[in-house]
Structure formats: C-alpha cells, structure tokens
Specification:
Oligomer: single chain
Helix content: 40-55%
Number of helices: 8
Number of strands: 10
Largest sheet: 4 strands, antiparallel
C-alpha cells in the first residue's frame, strides 16, 4: 500500500507547497505549527504553514517553501518520519493555490476576511521565527559569540529556550546531524537542556549550525559545550 501511495505522490507535479497528512490530531495547533517549522526549516526558507483543527483539516497541514528544492528535499527526506509517534505521509499539493482553496472553502464571506487577516499574521509570525528584525540581528549573533564557551565536549548545553520547548522539538532539530544520541530536559527548568552526540566533533558541527536558532520569534537558542 505504501508503494502505491508513493507512486501516487510522484504523479503530482512538483511545486513549492507540500501537503502532509496522518498527523497526530491530539497535538495543539500552535505546538504543531512550531514543531513543523522546527522540522521543515532545515530544508529551506518557509513562507507559510497552514494547520487547522476543523473536522475537514484534522490531521493535515500544508508547508509552503520559498524554493522548490526545499519542498522536494523535505518530501524525500521526511516521508514516513515518525512525527509525534505517527509516520507522516507527504506529497506535493495539487497546486500551490490548494492551500487557500482547501482552507477557505469551508468559510462564509465574513469568515474569509477574518481568516485572511489571521493568515497574514501567521505569515509574519513564521517570517519572524526565521529572520529577526534587522536591528536585532547583530546583537543576537554578537551575544552568541560573546558567550564564554567550555572546552569541546560531546554534550551540548542549551539555554534561552522558550517555555513551550519539549523533547520532540529539540530531537527533530538535532537529529538531522550525524552522531545525535539524545536530548535531556532538566525537570522544573524549561529554558535549559542537554543534547548528547557520539563525539565532540559531531557536537561542534550541530552547535555551529544551530547557534541562535529561533524556536519562537523571541527566543534565540544559545548553545555551548557542557562542562566536563
């Protein structure tokens, strides 16, 4: 059955928007969007994420990439990825406009206007997550550089994490790097965490790549080597 589904997936013409289903529908919408962003942004700049809790859209989402290559790589790499304990099914949306058609098709005229306004806010929120305001870019980076780091270690120490951070989000971010072993949260302290790799070198690669990554618009993650 999965082979048939995969063939059907390849029949649809590639475009910037991917359609995901078989998502765990017990996950709250805001957490779902943040987790999708954390997982898919490694493949390219994301313009929008549409996930709704209506009966028609339950367990489904759309991710719109700026570049076609991002959508293609995400589809190939994450097909069947265990997302909140359910394997994701991913295909290209039938057309780029399917996002708007599917989301707005169930709304009346007044709701369309409300949804349009809300959607614009969501787009700007996603943009914020990817790119801090021009004035704040330098301070974030310089702060990360000024952090007094410890000698290389295979365990990384993360701080300045947002309150809603969970093990799933961090695992999705770090398991794209070779040598990833596990995430360890600190009970009672939501803003810090440890991430273990197989070697110091592998930990260093992940540290450099994700330094300053924003899980939410306001929290730029700070990463150092853990104290030995």
């Amino acid at each position: 059955m999965s082979g048939v589904e995969r063939d059907a997936t390849m029949d649809i013409r590639p475009n910037h928007t991917i359609y995901i289903n078989n998502i765990n529908d017990k996950v709250k919408k805001e957490e779902l969007k943040r987790s999708l962003y954390a997982l898919f942004s490694q493949f390219g700049q994301i313009i929008d994420i549409v996930a709704m809790k209506t009966a028609k859209m339950r367990g489904q989402a759309f991710v719109v990439f700026k570049e076609l290559a991002g959508a293609t790589n995400a589809l190939r790499q994450l097909q069947g990825f265990p997302f909140y304990n359910k394997p994701m099914r991913i295909q290209y949306a039938k057309t780029d406009s399917e996002v708007i058609a599917k989301v707005k098709g169930t709304y009346g005229d007044k709701e369309k206007k409300k949804d349009k306004k809300k959607k614009a806010q969501e787009v700007s929120a996603v943009s914020l997550m990817k790119k801090p305001a021009a004035g704040s870019t330098a301070p974030v980076n310089s702060a990360a550089v000024q952090v007094v780091d410890n000698p290389p270690n295979y365990i990384l120490f993360l701080n300045n994490l947002p309150e809603e951070t969970n093990e799933m989000m961090l695992s999705m971010l770090f398991n794209q790097f070779p040598g990833f072993k596990e995430v360890r949260l600190v009970p009672g302290k939501h803003d810090i965490s440890f991430v273990e790799f197989e070697s110091e070198t592998q930990a260093g690669v992940a540290k450099d790549a994700l330094q300053g990554f924003r899980i939410t618009a306001t929290c730029a993650m700070k990463i150092t080597y853990a104290k030995k």
